[in-house]
Design goal:
GO biological process, one term: response to stress
Organism: Nguyenibacter vanlangensis
Strand content: 5-15%
Keywords: Cytoplasm, DNA-binding, Transcription, Transcription regulation
CATH topology of the largest domain: Arc Repressor Mutant, subunit A
CATH architecture of the largest domain: Orthogonal Bundle
Shape: extended
Distance between the termini: 45 Å
Structural class: mainly alpha
CATH superfamily of the largest domain: Winged helix-like DNA-binding domain superfamily/Winged helix DNA-binding domain
Subcellular location: Cytoplasm
Strand order of the largest sheet: 1-3-2
Domain HTH marR-type: 14-142
Order of helices and strands: HHEHHEEHH
Largest sheet: 3 strands, antiparallel
Radius of gyration: 20 Å
Length: 152
């Protein structure tokens, strides 16, 4: 007879929400790769461009807040996009401490190059399921940020 106590029933990797989100992010990256390679940008460069389509002429700090990126992470991305000719950076004449990021015609033209293709169909979800899941993930992110900022 085995005298060892039974093993605790610890959660498995597949039971962790954080792993589900992380691995889904990796899967999104793989699914987006052909689209982004065609455009010649990385995913992070892509989301910066999309944020500028939404609101052009933003400060680097404002753009960083929208993308959840620190300035030291965002600046090299913006420099590369500037080198590619998709945006320009310049000092705000009203406040020289602020850098304003603006799309060029080439940056705006990416939208017309089929860059609006989405992965809704690839997800296998119905459009209403996709929207509901996206809203739930945003709520999860918001709650986790609040929790972290509260120091809990």
């Amino acid at each position: 007879m085995d005298a060892r106590p039974p093993k605790p029933d610890y959660p498995k990797l597949a039971d962790f929400m954080c792993f589900a989100v992380y691995s889904t992010n990796l899967a999104y990256g793989r699914a987006y790769r052909p689209i982004l390679e065609e455009l010649g940008v990385t995913y992070t460069q892509w989301i910066a461009i999309v944020a500028l389509w939404e609101e052009d002429h933003q400060t680097v700090s404002g753009l960083g807040e929208k993308l959840f990126l620190e300035s030291n992470t965002l600046t090299p991305i913006l420099k590369k996009l500037e080198t590619l000719g998709y945006l320009r950076r310049g000092r705000d004449p009203r406040d020289e401490r602020q850098v304003i990021v603006s799309l060029t015609e080439s940056g705006r033209a990416l939208r017309e190059k089929g860059a609006q293709r989405t992965l809704v169909q690839a997800s296998g979800l119905e459009p209403d399921e996709f929207r509901a899941l996206q809203k739930a993930i945003v709520k999860l992110r918001t709650n986790l940020i609040r929790h972290a900022e509260a120091g809990n």
